[in-house]
């Protein structure tokens, strides 16, 4: 996961080593502790697929399309949620880095077609209905949401490997560092599409996760799953902000 975060940062022109280091505490987060192995493996694929989408928006070629198509297929084979999150981020990458080019949009959509066909085939053949077995005597659940306070706390508690209240303090310095870097970048992002992709990806998969349902039917724990991806984007955004802040401090201390 830290390596995939570093790769995304490098593609966006953001200090990749710092982004990877900031993402290190997320490698042993809540999804891994819960045993969501397939979804955990899909998380770095989502980040790598997003990086491939950015490259495709910049350089429309068969090789770049094949790269994105490959990551999308791998994401779907690992977990349907990972593929869904990747599709959302691919569209966000197009909005931020492709100047809303129709050709770039057509290229990214075409790259998602193979994985989309796999998903459509599974839906048509009801292959997903057997993933979660439900007793026929138990009525299907509806859509439920988490209380606002718990959803807000889940942004941190479901991203880090927090085992209880006693371990929260160990992660606070890291969380504060991310917040400082993000705020610094948000105040100075300007028209830089790469910066806005990092910021919007952070917002959508952290604060935006508050509006995600916690369960739909018999599929549970939807909302908390997106938080680690959001915190990886936060690491990328913070790396950009902290590097700019550090450069200003150095220039102030050692004017050229």
Supply database-style keywords:
256 residues; mainly alpha; three-stranded antiparallel beta sheet; globular
Description:
By secondary structure, this protein is an all-alpha fold. The protein contains 11 helices and 3 strands; from the N terminus they run H-H-H-H-H-H-H-E-H-H-H-E-E-H. It has a 3-stranded antiparallel β-sheet with strand order 1-2-3, with no helix packed on it. Residues 249-254 have low confidence and may be disordered.
Quick summary:
By secondary structure, this protein is mainly alpha-helical.
Question: Mean pLDDT, as a whole number?
Answer: 85
- Strand element count: 3
Alpha-beta content class: mainly alpha
Q: Give the SSE order as H and E letters.
A: HHHHHHHEHHHEEH
Share in helix: 55-70%
Proportion of residues in extended strands? under 5%
Secondary structure tally, helices: 11
- Cα gyration radius (Å): 19 Å
Give the end-to-end Cα distance, rounded to a whole number of Å: 38 Å
Spans of 5+ residues with little confidence (pLDDT < 50)?
Answer: 249-254
Largest sheet: 3 strands, antiparallel
Shape: globular
How do the strands of the widest beta sheet line up side by side?
A: 1-2-3
Write the layout of secondary structure elements.
Layout: H1 2-11, H2 16-22, H3 30-34, H4 37-58, H5 62-78, H6 80-97, H7 102-124, E1 143-144, H8 148-157, H9 168-188, H10 193-205, E2 215-216, E3 219-220, H11 227-253
Antiparallel strand pairs: 1-2, 2-3
Helix pairs in contact: 1-2, 1-4, 1-11, 2-11, 4-5, 4-6, 4-7, 5-6, 5-7, 6-7, 6-10, 9-11, 10-11
